[in-house]
Amino acid sequence: MTMMSDIEEATRLTRAGRLAEATALLRRALSGAAEPQPAATATKPAPPRGRIFDVPPEAMDAIADPMRTLRDRMRPHTPPPVADGARFLSLSCRIAADSRDFRLYIPARKPAAPAPLLVMLHGCTQSPEDFAAGTRMNEWAEERGMLVAYPAQTQGANAQRCWNWFDAAQQRRSGTETALIAAIARQVMRDQAVDPRRVYVAGLSAGGAAAAILGQAYPDIFAAVGVHSGLPAGAARDIPSAFAAMRQGGAAPAAKRLVPTIVFHADKDATVHPRNGDAVLAQQEAATTGLSLSEERGQAPGGHAFTRRQQRDASGRPVLEQWVVHGGGHAWSGGDAAGSYTDPRGPDASRAMLDFFDQHRLNR
User: Fold this and answer.
1) Which residues are registered as beta bridge partners of 199?
2) Distance, CA of 13 to CA of 362 (rounded, Å)
3) Which DSSP letter does residue 253 get?
4) 63 by DSSP, 3-state: which?
5) What single DSSP character describes residue 347?
6) What is the distance in angstroms between the CA of the first residue and the CA of the last residue of the chain?
7) Could you tell me if residue 231 is inside a domain?
8) Which pLDDT score, from 0 to 100, does residue 11 have?
9) Where is composition skewed (Low complexity) in this entry (predicted)?
10) 312-335: per-residue pLDDT in tens?
11) Is residue 211 located within the same domain as residue 331?
């Protein structure tokens, strides 16, 4: 079957009320696995041709994200814009016997002082270029006078190009991937005019989970963290526990120290359970006391409603921030359709994260 025929068949199965089969088909297509032949005794007769079942909306939610993923994989993605005079460099970083390529955006607008640096970690199947286009972070770099580094996961390290957040070996400072991403930040800090007090990390999905790990492992590098549709550090120790955490959410070890963190998660995310967004915040809350909570509700123009919660320290500065996007799925909120896994109808996660990061600096 082609991807298009997978989508068409999944749609037919859904309309026929065969939701489990539709979901299984889409997930097999996403993993590249061959479709198994059903046992004759387990095969149910197909409903009469043309018969349509009334499928409840909550049932459709179960396959919405897999269908979006298939569509994203099929269509070509537009390269991210590069402003006149800006540079979007292709670079590499090596430590010991391993290395990772990365893209570095240097804006045309040169700040008068050393610039902030944001490290952006893509999700599974994505590339730095795709992620840059979908988040529009290069455009924000021009507006705010910052540098953005986009590390690239390799298929050799993970067949789907996911960051290996679920590998216990990668959840500490000495983990190869963790150390490589930190080394990329250090390399850019060494070679460019970067303010070492204003280095941040953010990511989507597996990249969001990796960002949470980096915030815990390298609090001496990263002043704040952004986790979009991700999971808390230590949420899983292997592949089975990773799938369990993604499906159900769950607790994670308490943070040893508070790292300022902003979280975006949609409440209809069928890939990474929304409880994981709560768990990212709970992990940080366990490392501090005395924060004051405020909450506001709003709606993106012509799009999704949202709830925004901020927890402020005694000085009034938000150190924890959570955006719950109502009705959204597993996608970068407010992103550009030029990239994959984006939801243009949500509040702008890129803007919100940069506003949050701008309030935090390392004490050096």
Assistant:
1) 117
2) 53
3) P
4) helix
5) -
6) 57
7) yes
8) 56
9) 30-44
10) 999 999 999 999 999 999 999 999
11) yes
How many C-beta neighbours within 10 Å does residue 279 have?
23
Q: What is the mean pLDDT of residues 4-24?
A: 56
pLDDT tens digits along 161-174: 999 999 999 999 98
Residue length of the chain? 364
156 with 295, same domain? yes
pTM of the predicted structure, to 2 decimals = 0.80
Same domain, 144 and 275: yes
In this structure, the number of other CB atoms found within 10 A of the CB of residue 190 comes to 8
Structural domain contains residue 42:
no
Q: Are residues 341 and 278 in the same domain?
A: yes
Tell me, yes or no, whether 108 and 254 share the same domain.
yes
User: Which residues are CB-contacts of 201 (< 8 A; sequence separation ≥ 6)?
Assistant: 118, 119, 120, 121, 181, 185, 211, 214, 215, 222, 225, 226
Instruction: State which amino acid sits at residue 106.
Output: I
Residue 49: pLDDT band with limits 50, 70, 90: very low
Same domain, 149 and 296: yes
15, 145: one domain: no
Residue 264 pairs in a beta bridge with 228, 323
- Residue 278 to residue 177: CA distance in whole angstroms: 25
What is the count of structural domains for the chain?
Answer: 2
Domain holding 332, by residue range, is: 87-357
Distance of CA 158 to the CA centre of its chain: 16
Kindly state whether residues 197 and 324 are assigned to the same domain.
Answer: yes
Angstrom distance (rounded) from CA 258 to CA 283 = 9
Residue 67 lies in a domain: yes
Distance CA 104, CA 100 (A): 13
Specify if 44 maps to a domain. no
Residue 200, token pair as written in the block = 């941040």
The CATH number of the domain holding residue 255 is: 3.40.50.1820
* Residue 245 exposure: Cα atoms within 13 Å on the Cβ side: 27
